[in-house]
Amino acid sequence: MPVDVDALVAGVREGKRAAVARSITLVESSRPDHRALARELVTALASEDAPVVPRVGISGVPGVGKSTFIESLGTHLTSQDLRVGVLAVDPSSVRTGGSVLGDKTRMPRLATDPRAYIRPSPTAGTLGGVARATAQSMTVLEAAGYDVVLVETVGVGQSEVTVAGMVDSFLFLTLARTGDQLQGIKKGILEIADVIAVNKADGREHETEAAAKELAGALRFVHRGAKGRWVPPVLTCSGLTGHGVPEVWAKVVAHRESLGEQGVAAKRAQQQLDFTWALVRDELEQRLRRSPGVAAVREAIRAEVLSGALPATAAADRLLEAFDGRPTQA
């Protein structure tokens, strides 16, 4: 069925959920014709006088209870008459091409809240593909009138950096662990986090407070010498009971306010530049995969590399020569 971009734009601007869903499906597609239509759609939806909607990335250690926390936070925000859009990004599908999209089942109250929209978004391909689909999906939600956009990262590692580079504030959730509370938390995460919350404080207040103090000490070390700059606060909360969740959100808002309008504008401008190069890299990889010249030599080069007859460096040169249309060296 042909895609009617004008109808999608009108539907999104009217806040129709079906139009929002179809638009996000379009921007997630890797088909070349869909990618062109997605660019047309996003360009039409983007508006210079549109409100600058808060974009918040949320991630955490495995088992931290991200979905429970996001449901608690989302219902807190909708109770304040705010419309909340949630993008549950699964960069693990960069490897597998798929994922178990259980976010709606883990957020039953928020999933049925008319003021909320939850979109599990597996993105096969590259981290550049994750960036492209997520950034464009945020534009769709903002054009549909959502007041807050929450981006949950399901994966760990580079995916956090990717998402942190697309949002205004990055919230990291962790747990109080027996022994070393810093176990499993990399310094890089502490460097990109704007607010940190120790979750699952219900019935474990002493442990979570101790973990928060230890993390606060680590953050002071990471951000030493940062006079006048934002130092991430560490709070405790319970996504299950909702205790402390409003306070965590207040700190997220405080971080964004600390940037100021010019700071947010400058941050988003830099993100757009970074996004430009992410799009270029993603498009180049897609063209490489579709190249007839590469297709003609791919299997032969694969066989030579697997047999040990051709080193990876030489194989890469031959693939690039095939892509460029230059004669392949023997």
Helix content: 55-70%
Briefly note the CATH topology name of the largest domain. Rossmann fold
Strand order of the largest sheet: 3-2-4-1-5-6-7
Number of helical segments with 4 or more residues = 14
Total count of domains: 2
State the CATH class of the largest domain: Alpha Beta
> Spans of 5+ residues with little confidence (pLDDT < 50)?
93-102
User: What is the CATH homologous superfamily assignment of the largest domain?
Assistant: P-loop containing nucleotide triphosphate hydrolases
Beta fraction: 5-15%
Query: From the 3D coordinates, which CATH architecture of the largest domain would you assign?
Result: 3-Layer(aba) Sandwich
- Output the helix-strand order: HHHEHEHHHEHEHEHEHEHHH
Summarize the structure.
With 330 residues, the protein is α/β, with parallel strands linked by helices. It contains 14 helices and 7 strands. The protein folds into 2 domains: 49-259, P-loop containing nucleotide triphosphate hydrolases (Rossmann fold); 291-324, no CATH class.
SSE blueprint:
Blueprint: H1 5-13, H2 17-28, H3 32-45, E1 55-60, H4 66-78, E2 84-90, H5 93-96, H6 103-106, H7 108-111, E3 116-122, H8 127-143, E4 148-153, H9 158-164, E5 169-175, H10 187-192, E6 195-199, H11 205-222, E7 234-236, H12 245-290, H13 292-307, H14 312-324
Parallel strand pairs: 1-4, 1-5, 2-3, 2-4, 5-6, 6-7
